[in-house]
Amino acid sequence: MTRDQLTEKILDIKREKGLTWKQITEAIGGMSPMLVVGALLGQMKLVKPLAAKAKDLFGLTEAEAAMLNEVPYRGMPMPPTDPLIYRFYELVMVNGPALKALIEEEFGDGIMSAIDFNMEIEREPNAKGDRVKLSMSGKFLPYKYYGAEQGIPEYGFKEE
Amino acid sequence: MTRDQLTEKILDIKREKGLTWKQITEAIGGMSPMLVVGALLGQMKLVKPLAAKAKDLFGLTEAEAAMLNEVPYRGMPMPPTDPLIYRFYELVMVNGPALKALIEEEFGDGIMSAIDFNMEIEREPNAKGDRVKLSMSGKFLPYKYYGAEQGIPEYGFKEE
Amino acid sequence: MTRDQLTEKILDIKREKGLTWKQITEAIGGMSPMLVVGALLGQMKLVKPLAAKAKDLFGLTEAEAAMLNEVPYRGMPMPPTDPLIYRFYELVMVNGPALKALIEEEFGDGIMSAIDFNMEIEREPNAKGDRVKLSMSGKFLPYKYYGAEQGIPEYGFKEE
Amino acid sequence: MTRDQLTEKILDIKREKGLTWKQITEAIGGMSPMLVVGALLGQMKLVKPLAAKAKDLFGLTEAEAAMLNEVPYRGMPMPPTDPLIYRFYELVMVNGPALKALIEEEFGDGIMSAIDFNMEIEREPNAKGDRVKLSMSGKFLPYKYYGAEQGIPEYGFKEE
Amino acid sequence: MTRDQLTEKILDIKREKGLTWKQITEAIGGMSPMLVVGALLGQMKLVKPLAAKAKDLFGLTEAEAAMLNEVPYRGMPMPPTDPLIYRFYELVMVNGPALKALIEEEFGDGIMSAIDFNMEIEREPNAKGDRVKLSMSGKFLPYKYYGAEQGIPEYGFKEE
Amino acid sequence: MTRDQLTEKILDIKREKGLTWKQITEAIGGMSPMLVVGALLGQMKLVKPLAAKAKDLFGLTEAEAAMLNEVPYRGMPMPPTDPLIYRFYELVMVNGPALKALIEEEFGDGIMSAIDFNMEIEREPNAKGDRVKLSMSGKFLPYKYYGAEQGIPEYGFKEE
Amino acid sequence: MTRDQLTEKILDIKREKGLTWKQITEAIGGMSPMLVVGALLGQMKLVKPLAAKAKDLFGLTEAEAAMLNEVPYRGMPMPPTDPLIYRFYELVMVNGPALKALIEEEFGDGIMSAIDFNMEIEREPNAKGDRVKLSMSGKFLPYKYYGAEQGIPEYGFKEE
Amino acid sequence: MTRDQLTEKILDIKREKGLTWKQITEAIGGMSPMLVVGALLGQMKLVKPLAAKAKDLFGLTEAEAAMLNEVPYRGMPMPPTDPLIYRFYELVMVNGPALKALIEEEFGDGIMSAIDFNMEIEREPNAKGDRVKLSMSGKFLPYKYYGAEQGIPEYGFKEE
Amino acid sequence: MTRDQLTEKILDIKREKGLTWKQITEAIGGMSPMLVVGALLGQMKLVKPLAAKAKDLFGLTEAEAAMLNEVPYRGMPMPPTDPLIYRFYELVMVNGPALKALIEEEFGDGIMSAIDFNMEIEREPNAKGDRVKLSMSGKFLPYKYYGAEQGIPEYGFKEE
Amino acid sequence: MTRDQLTEKILDIKREKGLTWKQITEAIGGMSPMLVVGALLGQMKLVKPLAAKAKDLFGLTEAEAAMLNEVPYRGMPMPPTDPLIYRFYELVMVNGPALKALIEEEFGDGIMSAIDFNMEIEREPNAKGDRVKLSMSGKFLPYKYYGAEQGIPEYGFKEE
């Protein structure tokens, strides 16, 4: 059994039972719906109590629940051909240089973590058409200047 | 003169004058610093009054200011090799499937616009290490079902 | 079941029953044949009443009809190797720069939507050989200049 | 001198003189603005009388005008990273399969020519936001069934 | 059933019956062996009477014969890894610039059609080793200068 | 000096002097115009007497003539974006499988040489539109079955 | 049945019977072990008597033996990810320019054939560690200068 | 001035002065030689006091020293064609799956940071040939399970 | 049976039996857990006694154990999309130039072997968060200067 | 100065002085002509006495000679478009699987070194056309089974 086969099975059951992601993530609960959906689509891990709930909800085998508890090989093929996902890719492609310039000026030499990271998605009502609102927050991780000697900062935080 | 040459010139002047992006975006003002920096890095357009301010700040020629007022050929090479920008790419690669599932369930068949779109970036103080906070909001654009007949929705909003 | 498997099944039934796309799109109706065919080939969604008609026409299961009602992962592999589709790709490759220049001069900084978009295809009789006529119309979406201050346009429409 | 250098020079002069594409294409005239702009951007050829007008308008040398009269090596890098051009690419990627199915059913085995082809672009006023209207028409070219024997069609037009 | 599966089945039967392409193309006849073989390998369409003959020869089902009558999604993966096919690819890669220069000088601005096109292949006896002789002929298709005004050629034939 | 720079210089002189390829290949002579043009475009070598004629015709330096006498690093970037050259690429992509099947059945296990190879290009007058005629002939090179023992053919010619 | 499936079956039998390549190539004989192994791995053809021996050794069907007698679609995916094969790829990547310079200076304008080509592989005992010895020999094939006139060499052998 | 131009200038001066990396990194000091060399080659940032020392050592301008103090656009082209660097790439390609399995089992769901990371390189004397010793240590960063509810771990550390 | 199918089977059994890699590598033993895990994931070979232990542990067939004793086609697809493995790829991409500079200065012209190579992975306790510690050591292999004459070093060790 | 610029300069001087590679490699001597030519083309290093000879022969500066003494960033772009070099690439692509099978069976688990490696190239006279003879020999490097316990081989030599 591959993770793709498990994802396909879960989507088959979701379709047959007429379940929505909302119903599924409420039934499994435990953490952000984004992560639970991500796990069921093969990109995230479900910790044991959540994998057990998914097992009950979808009528999975023990082995299938165990697979949901494993860390998958993450990442979808790129560039995305689907327009919805492509728009996010485009945002990186167009705003990447400005993000780099502004984050580095504000924080110093480092990155925004994609691991110690939260994302929330909400509907933002708007008279001209509702908007998709994404709030993201990732820990700033400064580059380590290893072997730093006295007087030299050990991490790449903003220099005075 | 290519846009890349203009970007290089602007960065040379920024370096020689010891300007920060904060000083630059305050001097030019007019819209989000993200967009002003994006324009100076060759990804966005500056409307005429802002291009005029950039001309003064950097001592540009008329032709260079006119170029800043043009819409550039947007987009940087992908995949990004720089770690800071790559993390955003990775977020799309790993969360793409869940974003698609959740946005489509909430809004219907369509996309979040990458054009009618805002982004704000802030420092989020945190005892365990400050965080980079990104707030994004894009208009939901439903797919048009052209040729829709009576009783069929004209746009791909959420079906009841 | 994957969407590709459903497409293959639908094409098998179409072939066995000797159906034409014209017969199929007339039977399903509801919106442009282009969109109905797109959905049956795995690129578009059929709203529920249309999915129900497709179910009857092809003798599909409930789950298969439900899958037609889902938004597929859109996009075929690129570049297209098939000559018919390649010609459209070539038109973008050769005319892209001129389209960008003319649309931006006429409308301002933005794009033609590929989502709020219609396409019609017709046979254009011609003594030297009939022609394929494509009429397309997409909403112009101006770039949003977020954080726009007083006196600065909020959207990238044509500057005076 | 390469064609790219000539394009860059023309754009420099256009910027310095504050010319618009509309002024340029009216001054040069002779054929569709789309083609004239395409030629000045290095994708099309200008026939001699038009190249001569371009020479006058931009103050080009004889050799530069001669280069505008040459057929360039056509085609821009793909996939397009610029959002405006990408939307056209996406339209091919998403609608390619349906276009192939419908054109082949209507016309037979062949392609829409990208050479014996017209394109017109217009602003379509619309209360919900103006639209970009593209009208395209290309000659249908049926595949040649060479070596066709008696009773077998010589070209791939629609079979009865 | 996919076209690849049909091709594989036909090759299995060819192998089991010990048929040669010569026997097959003589039995099916109707047009150039190159096209008939192309169709059986999934690159061309067989018109109905030829598909019927292929059905008899290979003992295919009605649906399989109908599939042979469909226009396939043409094109093999590139670059070709097989040496025989690579040599043709190399001929394009090495001679492409000269072909472009000479065809455009002789005919004007346009292309050699790959659709209204014949190809013949023959053995050319030669004392130093027989040669593969390929004769190709494609209709010259001049670029259309749409919107051409009086005095401007409508098509890109050779300028005087 | 690179070969590309020499090609650019030659094209500059050709343009300034208003030379045609026909005039150039007649002046240089010695072998097929296809090869002479190929050499001037950086894909072929000119033997010394021909390089000397090119030197006179274009007013080249000794070193430039010597460079024309060198074997260049052959091959243009692929896939070709230019429509004229792409059509040849497409012919390989679509007809490759049939060419392989038919050449191997007629000749045995081997290839058509792309080195011991001739190509001629002619205008083929035709009432429906003149055609580009290409005649190609390449030596068949059978695979060598090295280490062949008695009774086993040493080369991959057609088996009886 | 595809050639890959046949290769997989042969490897399964080899493993089950505990056969070595040495035993296999001795049993089949007829030509270099390199070629016989190549054929069993799907890259070469076995002439009929050798295919018959392979049939006996592996207990293949008639159709499978017939497939071994066919010329496969040659070539593995590149670049090779396996370190053993990559080292050969690297040798081409690093030594390619010098090989081109030296072969062309010694032989003239042409190539070393990869078709009329032998390769032998041997163990070369060495006190510091045994070495893999590869001896290769390919016929030099000079470029044909077609249309060569009197006084011009017809082939690209070394010029005096 | 681009960072590549600065790197080229620094290497020119290094070569002209006959400096070694050892001399350079001792003169600049402040942190690991790996990082200092990385900065001079355009992959790392030098904090101000170190950039000042580099300025003195190489005779750079103020602007050049300021550029060394900037965070560069990191990352070299991949895959590496140079054998020395390729071996590291190969180690990732071959050992990636085992590294993932073992790190996740030992630490839980997360990654080894490439930012809060040290690397040391040493010569390891060995009678059979000295060895290159690399010691690396990166902080383990557990995935954040955002929206974690009571009883669910907030981070992807090893589950009991 | 392919190696991928065997890997999938082993992972299925691991999951069903609830085995950890630690238990597996202790049961099989014989060499570094990194290598044993690598072999079970299809990247390394298990020598016969270890393959026999794996056979017992997982209940494999003789043929499956024989396959574990074979050298697999090594290498996973690149670039890695999984964040854990990508970080190692990034380390090569960012530190490659400095590694090359420092290894060559210390050792001379050559590479660090990826074959005669050890790797150890350990948990490094740290108050700010435990770290992943990797110790690697590869034999330095100097380039061979073949054909070296008297006075010229035969290998590319550091020059004095 | 980049290595490419130095290569271009050396080739310019070679052309102007009418030098052959034979004259050059005899004048520089010291090791195999293949390596000396490789160094002058930017793929190998020249040890100091040879770099000094190259300096004299080509009239280089001290800095240029020092650059020849540096290890270059090796590797040309792949796949090679030049037919001469492509044939070597094809040999790897077609014979890679058999080389892997035979080397591993004869030597065990490991690779042929591309570093401790010799290559000789000779003209092999032959009545049917002279042949290019390449003799290569690379040290066999067995995989290290690190952490090998008693009774387990430490290196991947052929198992008994």
From TrEMBL, chains A, B, C, D, E, F, G, H, I, J:
EC nos: 4.2.1.104
Q: What does this protein do?
A: Catalyzes the reaction of cyanate with bicarbonate to produce ammonia and carbon dioxide.
Spell out the family assignment given in the record's similarity comment: Belongs to the cyanase family.
UniProt GO molecular function: cyanate hydratase activity
State the active site: R87, E90, S113
Task: Report which reactions are catalysed by this protein.
Answer: cyanate + hydrogencarbonate + 3 H(+) = NH4(+) + 2 CO2
Q: Which UniProt keywords apply?
A: Lyase
Q: Which SUPFAM superfamilies match?
A: Cyanase C-terminal domain (SSF55234), lambda repressor-like DNA-binding domains (SSF47413)
Q: The Cyanate lyase C-terminal domain covers which part of the protein?
A: 74-146
Q: Which organism is it from?
A: Roseomonas alba
Its recorded name reads: Cyanate hydratase
The record's annotation in NCBIfam families points to:
cynS, PRK02866.1
Pfam families per record: Cyanate_lyase (PF02560), CYNS_N (PF21291)
Cross-referenced InterPro entries: Cyanase, Cyanate_lyase_C, Cyanate_lyase_C_sf, CYNS_N, Lambda_DNA-bd_dom_sf
- Would the keyword Lipid metabolism turn up in this protein's UniProt record? no
